[in-house]
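Usage example:
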Amino acid sequence: MSNVTLTGSQYGKAENRLVRITRDTDRHEIEDLNVTSQLRGDFDAAHYEGDNSHVVATDTQKNTIFSFARDGIGSPEEFLHRLAEHFTSSFDWVSGGRWAAEQFGWSRIADHDHTFYRSAPEVRTAVLVRDGDDETYISGFYGLTVLKSTASGFVGYPKDPYTTLPETEDRIMATDIACRWRYNTSDVDFNASYEAIKKTIMEAFGAEYSKALQHTLFQMAEAVVENHPEVDEIRFSCPNKHHFTSDLSHTNQDNPNVVFYAADRPYGLIEANFAREGAATKDEAWVGIAGYC
Ligand SMILES: O=c1[nH]c(=O)c2[nH]c(=O)[nH]c2[nH]1
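Running the assembly step on the lines above writes:
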């Protein structure tokens, strides 16, 4: 008799690099994804006894992903939904799971029919968590580098013996936006919603004076919640990519915020979660998302 109990599990094939070319006409389309499938359910016997009768092989999960891609992708969220439907309906003991995708953006070289370059700076992300009939979609992106050359400051912070940072009401603000938002519905045109939310976030980054990156995160979150009723929560993880004005006094030059040293590290790391007023949060759906978001 063991004194160890299985208290949770999920398993599958991670990071299936999947490229799908649509070539019905001479003008090809490319979809480039990194797909992870993980099943949840009754896998007790596999862990306790080495009985694999419930263990849908990770190799089979991988093959399913590539096979389903033969019929098209559409959007990462729709593709993950097809996988979730398949695994939960084909195997009684699979009660849910977690399916995730990253999508890399490509554009045509000079409008060429079948020649592309990696274009979108950001990587799109999608996660589908399924528990019985309950489905939660969390989508987002990372790696969207943005910068505003003014209309940002940082003043009013506490000063102690360790404080050397001068206050400023005119600085560069730069960050690599990583964010994820939780949809409150699956009845969404996911591709259109993704583009619209990304646009809202980018416009909000520059729309108002920023008193801190924390303030900017709130401004972006507020714009998303106001303009996108399909979203109930949004989380951000954003480095403050410091740009320090370079001291040019040794060459008798002034520097009215024109020459900067772009510091690589350390960087501020500013993270926050926001939710629509009155909306239920769904912390369990966020479990497994590495880092803050
Ligand atoms: O926008 C900022 N937020 C901070 O918390 C912070 N701390 C700091 O040194 N500079 C900044 N800038």
